[in-house]
Amino acid sequence: MDADILSRICAQIYVKYPEVKGVRPKVHAQTKVGGTNHLLIFTGSAKASGGKVLSRVLRVVVTDEGKIIKVTTSK
Known about the structure:
This protein has one helix and four strands. The protein is α+β, with helices and mostly antiparallel strands. The chain has one domain. It has a four-stranded antiparallel beta sheet with strand order 1-2-3-4, with no helix packed on it. The longest helix is centred in the first third of the chain and has 14 residues, at 3-16. The protein is elongated. The N and C termini lie far apart (28 Å).
């Protein structure tokens, strides 16, 4: 995956999910019949109202062109 495309995707994710801001994702290629998608896995943490720390995992599926197809997150 191109570094410029990865940077643009990360910027979009950081705006919507600030708890993973600054985290570089693990990138995994997913081959399919029409081409290749990429799975980006972000791991971070957020503070809950009681002061506890909750871990957060985001899984983002993107195309080679950088279009975000799907975002799933842990609670």
